[in-house]
Amino acid sequence: MASLTEDIREVARGWRWTRRPLTPRSAEPWAPPAEPREFPTAWARTPAVRATREIIQRYVFKPLVWTETEPTVEGLDHLEGLRPPVMFVANHSSHIDTPLILCSLPRQWREKTAVAAAADYFFDVWWRAASTALVFNTFPIERAGGKRATTTARKLVEEGWNLVVFPEGTRSRDGWVGRFRHGAARLCQEYGMPAVPVALRGTYAAMPRGRSWPRPGRLPVSVRFGPPLRLEQDEDYRSLSKRMQQSLARLWDEDGSTWWDSMRRESEGATPSMSGPDGPRWRRVWDSTRPLPRRARPKAWPAR
């Protein structure tokens, strides 16, 4: 029995538990290119799994996130009159961004929405790939770019699925918005689908990078949907990508002030940048970790 136990331990020590490359970083420039791998996620969109996911999101994740944070959701009226497929484009600074967006959507939108996730992080081990695909209907995106990076996304759009995409490609390291990649705008141009900007505020303060659970205190977070953007005549994907960033910046400004003030600043070209203040990284992180001010709750009875 002792010999069998030792054999099992020896096998476990030598077993590859992940798909991470074995090549040392110093030797990567001379390593042969890795063969493309396909990550099957079609099972996550079968009727049985979709029903299971709705139960998990509605009765587990939404109560959990709404208990650990204090979300405010605005702008869902912009979805009225839209027909799938739609591209939801959002800034990204926390692991709670995805459940916040999905649980904020009405059921008829949520159950037909898939989320783009980095293949080298969420799909490098089977348990993480399976769990995220089950709970959030994720599909892999290669951060390196190229046509293969959006193969699954194209199939989903052709099947009528809405997509949630974070054009930055990764979570922000300091809570501010980084450079946008053009994959989302390319897809919108190719398929003529509208892009709905989604501004997320307070998520970095509530659950910054490196944390596996929101900070205590039920910090306020905000999810604000904006008017859909459509490709204009003779417009290319670069221009559309720039308009996505500008629209997110105006939504961000609106969430921190008022709709009127944000529109006035936009007309004057004075919309605050989402890239944050200039200065050392510690100062930028300090600014972005300050919690949002709590919003006054509406009174049950008007004052006389």
Short account of what is shown:
By secondary structure, this protein is of the alpha/beta class. It is 39% helix and 12% strand. It has a seven-stranded mixed beta sheet with strand order 1-7-6-2-5-3-4, with helices on both faces.
- Compute the separation of the termini in Å: 82 Å
Spans of at least 5 consecutive residues whose pLDDT stays below 50 are none
Biggest sheet layout: 7 strands, mixed
- How big a fraction of the residues is strand? 5-15%
Count of helix runs = 12
The Rg value, from CA coordinates, equals 21 Å
Query: How many distinct folded domains?
Result: 1
Task: Say how many strands there are.
Answer: 7
Question: Would you list the SSEs in sequence order as H and E?
Answer: HHEEHHEHHEHEHEHEHHH
Query: What is the spatial order of strands in the main beta sheet?
Result: 1-7-6-2-5-3-4
Q: Overall mean pLDDT score? A: 87
Shape: globular
Structural class from helices and strands?
A: alpha/beta
Q: Assign a percent range to the helix content.
A: 25-40%
Give keywords:
12 helices; 12% strand; 304 residues; 39% helix; globular; alpha/beta; seven-stranded mixed sheet
Structural summary, described in words:
- The protein has about 300 residues and is α/β, with parallel strands linked by helices.
- The protein has one domain.
- The protein is about 40% helix and about 10% strand.
- It contains twelve helices and seven strands.
- The protein has a seven-stranded mixed beta sheet with strand order 1-7-6-2-5-3-4, with helices on both faces.
- α2 packs across α3, α8 crosses α10 and α10 crosses α11.
- It is globular.
